[in-house]
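Q: Fold this one first, please.
A: Sequence and structure below.
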Amino acid sequence: MQVLPVYQLPFRMTFLIFIIFSFVGWVSEVLYVGIFFEHKFVNRGFLHGPLCPIYGFGGLSILLLPAFLYKTWIPLFFASMIFGTIVEYLSSWILERLFHTRWWDYSRYKLNLHGRICLLNSLLFGVLGVVIIHFIQPHVMYFLSLFSDFVLKLSADVIAVALTVDLLITLRRLVDFSVSMARLKAFGENLRERFGQEQWFNGESLSKIIESVKVHAAEKKDEISTSLLKKIEQFQPRLKNLESFMHRFPTLKSINYKEELKMLKERIEEKLK
C-alpha cells in the first residue's frame, strides 16, 4: 500500500499511527530489557500504559520526510538518521528543562553529544527509517484501511481520552518523584548539619549517613534517637516508590539530586544481587 507523509493524512489516522509506533516501541523495550537484563517484566514506558511516546514521535518524524525519499534507500537512511537524532536530542533537552532530570544518558558510548545522542543510536535511526518506510508503514496503512471511518474515529477518541488520563497521572507521579527527592535531600543535609562533627557519623554518602544514624540511634535508645529512627522508617515507602521509578529509567540522571539517585541505584543493585 502507498505510504504517504503524515501531513497528507487525516489527523485521527496520524494519531493512530503514533499510537501503533509507541506500542511497538514499548514492546521492544520490554522484551529487550526483560530478556537481556532484568529477566522479568519491567514497564519501560514513560507512561503507565503500554506506550513509549518517543518511538511514536520518532516514527512520525520519519513520515514527515519528503515523499520523494520514500522510494530511495541510501538518501532515506541518512535523512532518517538526521531526523531521528534531532528528535532524540530535543526530547532529552526538553525533559531535562521541565523536570531537571535526564531520562537517558549515552556518556559511556563513544562519539556522543552531551550524553543525549550517540553515533550508534543515530545509525539505528537510519536503519529504522528504512525499515519503517519500506516494510512497516505499508502494513500499518493496510491494517488501518480494514476499519471504517467510524471505527477509526471512535478508536482514536477513546485512546486519546485514555492517553490524556495517563499523562495526567504520570505528571502527578513526576511531581511526587521530585517532592520525594527534595525531601530526601533535605533530610540528608539536616543530618549532616546536626551530626557532622560526631565521631560515629559517616558522611561518605547519603546511604552511609542514614546507616550510621540508624546504628547510633538504635544503640542510644533515647527520645531523640527514637524520633530519628521513626523519621527514617517513614522514608521507606517513599524509597520503595523511588526505586520502582528508577527501575524504569536505570540511566536516569539529575542536576539537583545526584547523591540521592546514587543511593537509590546502590539500593537497587544490592537487591538484585
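Q: Good. Now the second chain.
A: Here it is, same layout.
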Amino acid sequence: MQHRSFPDTAQPVRRRSPRATVAATLFAAAVLLTGCTGDSQPGPGDVPTREPAQPAVSPPVTATPAGQVYPAPAPLTALVGDPGSGNLAGLHPDGTTLTVFTPATDPPTTHEVRLPAPAATIATGTPGEILAATDGAILRIDAATRAVTRIPVDGTLHSVRSRPDGTLIAGTADGRVLILDRTGEIRQTVSGLVSADAIALTGDTLAVLDRRQTLLTEITPGSERLGLALRAGFGAANVVEAPYDRVVVTDPDSGQLLVFTTDPLVLRQRYPVRSSPYALTYDRRSDTVWATCTQSNEIVGYDLSTGTPREMGRYPTVRQPNAVTVDDATGDLYIGSATEPGLQRIPADQRKRGQ
C-alpha cells in the first residue's frame, strides 16, 4: 500500500482559547492512543506521511559569529561530544568521514576518520566512543584512537543510541526500533513506525521521533509494542532529552520548540522560536536547551527550570548551523556549519557576561 501525503500544514499557528486548546489536545491524544496502542494498530502503509523536515536554507552571514570560529577540514552536518575523552566528532556531508576535534588545544587539533559506509547520523556512545548509524551496521569509533568497529545490523539505520550499560538502540528506515546487546545480538524489536529517525532516552524509556509522521512515540522498558504517541508539531526535525523525564523537539516548519515529558508521554510546553529552529543540545550545568536557527544564522538558549521556557541568550552563528553540541565539562557551545568548513565555539563564561 502506498503512503499517503499530508496536506501542506506549514502555516501560521492560529490562537485558540485555552478551553479549545485543551479539548483539541485531549481529542488528538485520544485518536493517537487508539491508533497506536490498540490491537488494530495501523501498519506503516496505512498512515499519512510527509517528507522529513529539513533545515531552512541560511542566508549569507551578516553578523560576526559569537566566540571563535576555527578551521575545519569540511562542512559539518552533525556534531557530538564525548565526555570520556573530551573530544568532539563532526560528520561530513557525504557521511563517509568524521573529523575528531580535540578542543583542549587552541585551535583544536583535528583527525579525520574514514568510515566503511556512509553514516546517516552520529551519537555519543559509552564514555570514550562515538556511534554511527549506517546501512546494515552500527559503527563504534574510539574517540581517542579513532579505531572503528563494525557491528552488523539487519536494516538501513537512521538513528542509534547507547544506554550507560552498553546496550545499543537502533532505529531503522522501515520503522523498527531494535534493542541490541554490546555484541550486536538483537534482544528486542518494536515495529509499527514509518521510520525511526531519532531517539531520546529518559531513564529506561525511549522517545522515538518519526519524521515521516512528525510523531513522537514512547516505548516503555520491556515492551514489544509502541506506547503512547503524540503529534509533534507540523514538521518535527530533531529531539534531545533533558532531566526530569523531559524530551525537547524542534519543529522548523512552524518555528516552535516543543517540550514533552515521558512515562506517560505528555506535551508540556510549546514555545515560539521562529527562524526555523533545527539542531538541539542540552546544557546540564544551566538546565538550558540550545537550538540553532538556520533561517537567521543564530543560536538561542531557553531555561527549562520554570513552567515556561525563558530565553537566556541569542547569538550569531556561522552560516547554515545544522549541528550543535555542548561540552559537558565546561558548558562551552560548539556549532558546525553545513556549508562552510568551520567550527564555532561560544565559551560559557562569554555567555554569562552577555546576560
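Q: Anything worth noting on the second one?
A: Confidence is low (pLDDT under 50) at residues 1-42.
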